[in-house]
Amino acid sequence: MTVPASGPPQLSLRGVGMRFPNGVRALDGFDLDVGRGEFLSLLGPSGCGKSTVLRLIAGLARATDGEVSRPQGVRVGVVFQEPTLMPWADAFDNVRLPMRLAGRGAGEVRDEVMAVLARVGLADFAHAYPRELSGGMRMRVSIARALVTRPGLLLLDEPFAALDEITRGRLDDDLLALWGEQGLTVVFVTHSVYEAVYLSTRVAVLGGRPGRLVESIEVDAPHPRDEAFRASPAYAGTCLRASAALKAAMA
Q: Which whole-number Å values give the CA distances from 187 to 69, 123, 152, in the listed order?
């Protein structure tokens, strides 16, 4: 199972500030390190800048102050809260999109696309359209599309927030399995204390706008995790600590 490696962080944010054109400051003096192989969850109230941090790491936005650094050549996969699938394309072509944009033909990448669809449990739905898939299945397609380029860094912005608890729990477990198998570094945005503690090697709690790091909580429990961990005193205690930090941040 993947564990964070020692040495320099894979990601580093130093003194990062983000001010939008309307004058709103989403972040101010924000510092964060992410180690290689970590599963880090960003936990905080709405509007505290969690998604902004993710967009800055992904290179989808540029900080107005400070520095965001990651090693050159690291492939980045991004999964948003909505699956953002092309409704006119089947699951295969939605997953193939990054490769098509890179100029690779469908025949050339067929085996790679089918392999990643199989890994998320959708090999039998390769030719199904988004309207024919459940919400959880559409999210699996979105995750497969992020994984098909074999990223070293996977960023997820509340990907399971709109799903029912049973589906959400299954996808949490699937995500942990992918993290362990593929040696990913994961940064995961969530509003859920329970999800953050269950998934993560570390939980970073953010305070209200402008976003700031309030507390960094190590989740000292082995992987893989299961229902026994959810029922353990260690899980309950860490959830209580994260909840207290979140309440303090909101106050």
A: 15, 27, 11
What residues contact 121, with CB distance under 8 A and at least 6 apart? 140, 174
pLDDT of 8: 66
Residue 10: which residues within 8 A CB-CB, separation 6 or more?
Answer: 34, 35, 36, 38, 70, 71, 74, 152, 153, 185
Q: How confident is the model at residue 7 (pLDDT cuts 50, 70, 90)?
A: low
Q: Are 157 and 54 in contact (CB under 8 A)?
A: yes
Instruction: Tell me the Ramachandran region of residue 7: left when phi exceeds 0, alpha when psi lies from -120 to 50, beta otherwise.
Output: left
* Residue 27, number of CB atoms within 10 A of its CB: 27
pLDDT, one tens digit per residue, over 168-180 is 888 999 999 999 9
Confidence tier at 1 by pLDDT (50, 70, 90)? very low
**pLDDT score, position 3:** 44
Domain boundaries, the chain: 8-49+60-74+153-162+172-251, 85-151
Phi and psi at 85, nearest 5°, equal: -90, 155
- DSSP 8-state symbol, 5: P
Q: Cα dist. 80→77, 130, 161, 207, 237 in Å?
A: 10, 16, 10, 22, 30
- 142 vs 3, which has greater pLDDT? 142
What topology does CATH give the domain 8-49+60-74+153-162+172-251? Rossmann fold (3.40.50)
Closest CA to 94 of 37, 137, 40, 158: 137
pLDDT at 106 over 90: no
